[in-house]
UniProtKB/TrEMBL annotation, chains A, B:
GO terms for cellular component: cytosol; protein-DNA complex. GO terms for molecular function: phosphorelay response regulator activity; transcription cis-regulatory region binding. Residues 130-228 bind DNA. It comes from Croceicoccus pelagius. It is found in: Cytoplasm. This protein is a positive regulator for the phosphate regulon. Transcription of this operon is positively regulated by PhoB and PhoR when phosphate is limited. Residues 130-228 form the OmpR/PhoB-type domain. Keywords: Activator, Cytoplasm, DNA-binding, Phosphate transport, Phosphoprotein, Transcription, Transcription regulation, Transport, Two-component regulatory system. This is Phosphate regulon transcriptional regulatory protein PhoB. The keyword NAD does not apply.
DNA sequence: GCCTTTTGTTACCGCCTTATGACAAGGAGG
DNA sequence: CCTCCTTGTCATAAGGCGGTAACAAAAGGC
């Protein structure tokens, strides 16, 4: 199971340290910062799987960071959990409407925050929570690095496996070649867009071995999508 | 925008009525029940997009319903929002660990619940939270790049897709050929005005395949408009 | 009713996008 | 050090798509 990567934005240093310790004990990778502007940088550079955001941090307000994360295409889909000392309903609603995926009201126990983070991750990226992905008749177990179709075990190369995993985490959705490069090869990889075609080809070959239908849909001038056949 | 379907499981009848009223005013379809066993039935038969579940309902405890919903493959992926009168941390964590996607602690305002439900839906099924365009009987999902009419999937080329999307974003309005060129082909494209006619033709052809009415209205000496038939 | 203007429709050709196989460089493992 | 596997790139083929022109049809204007 890969370690989910968390970005923790919290300017109360003792709380930040406590949380970092607890989350690392749970098997998370934690990147912490107390500064709002640095948070924006880290969010794009480190590509965290989830952001924990204090409502009030130095530099920028948490809600503003949230809004900026949502606006930037790179980070628009990263789930956000807000920490707020205020219990007022308006603030909570504003947080949710700004695009936070969840919030926790101080004071809270680390255990509760961990449960919420894990719930959000389970929802957004099942593979990170150790679950088995299943789309149509294809099953992918990220933990054991195994793919099966109708019980038949499939043989995929490393890149094809990551590509398939990403697709299965977002079934039905169309991704451009650029998006796929970012998601599967890593942001900033300097690779020809056309290379994606080749790996799509290899993935198709590996997946349709037993005469099964092709779950990869080509969307002309847009990219590719993965869906149940 | 399609109406998301909610299953509301709540045995406090006055609260249930209030919520049903408020959610319907927000454009949701609400199925309500006060009984736990009936809830299980409705969950499989009605295939709701989300379940709002009171912690304590007659027949079965909410948490038990939650567990059973998760266990059944049909309903395992339906998001669940729990309503709980108890504020104790243990209960909340137990709720999340059981598989609830969110919980709201009583007393709460309908507005807050609505915000949470909409946040969960946005996360889980973007198509239900507004990424889907709908005009008349035609649906366009930009995320999956799909167009359907009365359930029938339509086949459109890239340009026709963009043209239709633009039309559906501004239904009823008349656009000149020049405006369409700017919007769909991009500003500064050096293309014959009459080319638009051809693509309108192709769009019509693709959309009226199954004998449906033509939603594209020709406005002589002005341009074209798209409207519900 | 006749003429003019505007739109509908079809056909065609070139171009752009995608599919596919081959190949060489790089790396892991023995 | 050698071998096998993986991977990125390229060349080429195939096919769909798009823009244009030409002609037919329809709608207004008189």
């Amino acid at each position: 199971m890969p370690s989910p990567r968390l970005l923790l934005v919290e300017d109360d240093l003792s709380l930040a340290e406590l949380l970092q310790y607890r989350f690392e004990a749970e098997g998370y990778d934690v990147i912490a910062t107390a500064d709002g502007d640095e948070a924006m940088l880290l969010a794009t550079e480190q590509a965290p799987d989830l952001v924990i955001l204090d409502w009030m941090v130095e530099g920028t307000s948490g809600i503003e960071i949230c809004r900026r994360l949502r606006r930037d295409k790179e980070t628009a889909h990263v789930p956000i959990v807000m920490l707020t000392a205020r219990g007022s309903e308006d603030d909570r609603i504003r947080g949710l409407e700004t695009g936070a995926d969840d919030y926790v009201t101080k004071p809270f126990s680390p255990r509760e925050l961990i449960a919420r983070v894990s719930a959000v991750l389970r929802r957004v990226r099942p593979a990170l929570a150790g679950e088995m992905l299943e789309v149509g008749d294809i099953k992918l177990d990220a933990t054991s690095h195994r793919v099966t179709r109708r019980g038949q075990s499939l043989q995929l190369g490393p890149t094809e496996f990551r590509l398939l995993k990403f697709f299965m985490e977002h079934p039905g959705r169309v991704f451009s070649r650029g998006q796929l490069l970012d998601a599967v090869w890593g942001t900033g990889s300097d690779i020809e867009l056309r290379t994606v075609d080749v790996h799509i080809r290899r993935l198709r070959k590996g997946i349709t071995l037993e005469g099964g239908k092709d779950p990869v849909r080509t969307v002309r001038s847009a990219g590719y999508a993965f869906e149940a056949v």
